[in-house]
Specification:
Length: 241
């Protein structure tokens, strides 16, 4: 496949690639080798579909390079971006656990490489290796907490505050007290993350820029006073907004 990453050809290279996955890192060598023997590798080009909503497959995928995007789509074509997953992440575990068809679609954001194992292999792995099982439990707990936070924001925050909260999550701290998102998120993607209209996102981002709180540059979006933005969200959470 032109433009796609190549899977490691040597068996030992495959074992080492799997060892870099957080869920698999603590496995004993024999268990890791068994996973490597049964795993399938797939190289993806940007935009390539991995799984689609409603698929009956139950494989679990480990992202070994690149990044993928998890999206919900309504019957009318509206998209809700659930998550972007980079190297070290995994997805598809819910179908392996409960046997229900896929609830979201996943596509490659960039050139990417995935390693997949069949659902029964994954379940056997986490049930018989406490370290892997604990990692999975913590991962699922973190995802539940993140969804609860988004539900709270949707119920209690204004559109401006929801956008600010998402920008803070996407940003990385920089020297001097600023925070930066690089590359800058397109406004239609922010809208798809938050179930807002693109026009709403455009209007609120423009207001934040006029207030001197952010600047949209060619290669990044800069939050000039992230602590002030966090304080605004804390006030809203306490019911003071």
């Amino acid at each position: 496949m032109s433009g796609a990453l190549q899977a490691p050809a040597d068996p030992q290279q495959r074992v080492e690639a799997l060892r870099r996955q957080p869920l698999l890192a603590g496995l004993p060598e024999p268990a890791l080798c068994r996973v490597a023997e049964q795993a399938r590798w797939r190289a993806l080009a940007p935009g390539e579909l991995v799984v689609d909503t409603g698929d009956a497959s139950a494989e679990v995928y480990f992202v070994t390079a690149g990044a993928v995007r998890v999206v919900l789509r309504s019957a009318g074509g509206q998209e809700l971006i659930l998550n972007d997953l980079g190297a070290g992440a995994l997805f598809g575990e819910l179908a392996a656990i409960d046997g229900i068809s896929r609830s979201a679609s996943v596509t490659a954001l960039s050139r990417a490489q995935l390693c997949s194992v069949r659902g029964p292999v994954f379940l056997d792995l986490v049930l018989h290796n406490p370290t892997a099982g604990l990692h999975l439990l913590r991962l699922l707990a973190a995802r539940v907490r993140a969804k609860d936070q988004l539900r709270l924001e949707a119920a209690a925050f204004s559109a401006r505050q929801r956008i600010v909260a998402e920008l803070l999550r996407l940003s990385a701290a920089r020297p001097g007290g600023e925070a930066r998102i690089s590359p800058p998120p397109p406004q239609h993607e922010l809208a798809a993350r938050l179930s807002l209209r693109r026009e709403t996102v455009s209007r609120e981002v423009a207001k934040l820029a006029r207030e001197g709180l952010l600047t949209v540059q060619r290669g990044a979006l800069v939050l000039h006073r992230p602590e002030a933005l966090r304080a605004e969200l804390e006030q809203a959470t306490r019911g003071g907004a």
